[in-house]
Amino acid sequence: MSEESPPPGRQYVPGEVVELRVHGVSGAGAEQVLDRPHVHQVAGDRSGGFFRPRPDYPDSTGPGGVVLEAYRWSDLPSGTAARTLSLVFLLPFMLSNVAIWMRPADRGSGSGVKVLCRLIALNLTLVYVLSAVGVALDLIAWKCMGSPRCLEGRAWLSWLGGRPVGLRLVVLVVLPVAALGLLWMLSVRPGRPYEAFRTPGGDPEGDRLSAVGQWDAMPMVGRLRAIHVAAAFAVLNLTLLAARGAGGPSPVVIVLAAVAGAVLAACLALLCAGASLERASTGPTDRLAATARVVACALTVPTLGVVALDGAPWPHSTGLPGYSQIVAWAFVAQMTLLFALAVLTLWRRRGRDPRQALLRGLGAPVIATAAVGLASALSAELVYRTAYFLNRRAITGSAGDLVPPPLAYKWAIFTFFLASIAAVAAGGAVTLLTRPGRRRAAAAIVARDFPDAPPEAADRLDRVARTIARARFTEWLGPLAMVFAGLAAVGLAASVLGLFEHQPGPLVERFLGVPAEFVNFGLTFGSYLIAGIIAGLVVGGLFAYRTAEFRRYVGVVWDLGTFWPRAAHPFAPPCYAERAVPELAKRICYLAGQHEGVLLTGHSHGSVLLAAAVLQLPAPVRRRVALLTYGSPLDRLYTRLFPAYLGRDVLREMGARIDWRWVNLWRDTDQIGGWVFAAHRPGDPPPGADPSERVDRRLRDPEDVVVPPSDSVPPPIRGHWPCESDERFAAAVRDLVGRLREADRGR
Questions:
Q1: pTM (two decimals)
Q2: Backbone phi, then psi, for 623, in 5-degree steps?
Q3: What average pLDDT does the structure give for the chain?
Q4: Of 34, 51, 220, 617, which has the highest C-beta tally within 10 A?
């Protein structure tokens, strides 16, 4: 088949074009996407399916007589309420996985950034395991079960309280092992084989957006999972062996600790082998990762035997010997890796445009810092809240505490409290300082859009201006994210003070003159703040699943994060694009063989899915495809956050592949979407010869500020809402359908 020949099996009716609509993160139903009350499914399943209007009902076609079809994918990243809640608890892992995709756009492979992101992701797993160890072994097995006052009235603990220390540790080690197993279960989602959604044809291009959906990430996810499990068990064994050998290690303890250390070192080395780690086929890396996992798991058996059967006396200690130091060193490793990632990113962005360096080059360290800060806060809250419960009263940090939490966690909560206050203050300051400029720009836009508005429309004009000003605040989210990341980094650095056995209250009072009571208040308030964040995530997950309007806001972050394949953290939520993108591409190829042309219309994040699918289409199919995007974050978010994978060059390449049969509709009132190449506001220069300058079409929003004669209220402000029922949307559809038919006649 030549490149100009149509796809095999082409049997279309002349003049017939199908419009394939892809919704955004709102989780809209097929009826709403198609703007038709009666629809039926023609392909796919309950998680992701293709729908059309029922042919036996009137008005089943779209503008220009197109055949309407919709792809509903909203259940792929979420689905059931239980699954949505599980994804909420994997948020730090998701953020660490997103960071690896936010590396700067440069000519290198970015291997250094990838290695550091994967090491940071591994550290998050270890911190998670250490928090479970802190609850089960340090707080309960060692501290509480060693205190008659703590066991008083607690039959569910006292049955083991009088037993030897080694037996208590061996019995309760089941809790961190179960926590690791739970983590594994939450991150694994059963589904159809990846091969069922493989794109027919296409040409994956490594780092480009076209790699999403073409790249079978499961082999690498399996390797990463084996490495993380091996490292988690190695650290668990090292923690037990450090406690057992604190009073003088025996030769057996030394040998076992050496093996566990060797396994941990092997895991770090495997994460540094980027090329072999990312290989799609099996090889030595798979065998090495599997061997490390088997050795680490098998090593747990003799470790538990030594802990339970060694007759040497246990040292006298206020906590599990060596545990506080291990936690503190884990925080030190976090800070070191984050610092190295920031330095490497800045070095790669050296000499580039300052705006790009601010919004793009530092994306990886900013998001990685947010992931580390959130994981540290959640881990500290788990340990701190457990100690609070076991103490039967608020923790003050005094020597009278029955079950004091490790100092590193206390520092983490206190610095989180300070960083939160500073972040709120910075956000308020940025909001107030930028408001006059945003309001002036919005007022100028409103004045150009409605120059003849009557005086009675003044309130309506002011409301439109305020909506535009709020929408323009999106441009300041990058600097705010950097401020928060910087504050979180300072807080993590302060957690290292736990290595030197410094209590937060006395140290702050000594050097800063702040009363120790304020520190105790900060600890309590910070703990409740973290608990509130956890509750908010749970409630947000439930509402995002049950309420489409609420999901429109919180779903942006979640669907953006789970769009990218798991290349850093294997316990991150599964990537829905690994199914959605090739499934879309396969359906487009089929429709191109049955119809004269295919018009792809994507709202919000649906435009990103379509962009990835277009880049995977074979050349004969691309010649029969046109693209209509609206409310699209392609340039406003994706080119700034993921420059190495979706930069301006990729957008231009996508337009060239479909011969610039592309229209992008956008509104000034939209806080998420925007223009792709040019704004085209009133007063801007007309489009030039460059075809990219004709892609964007601005929609005045609202259409008017006065009540039309046929209505009793003025036209609504649409913002980021879809516009399928808008006549301007229909005009763009008719325009692109005409181009498709003209191109078909030219062939």
A1: 0.88
A2: -70, -10
A3: 83
A4: 617
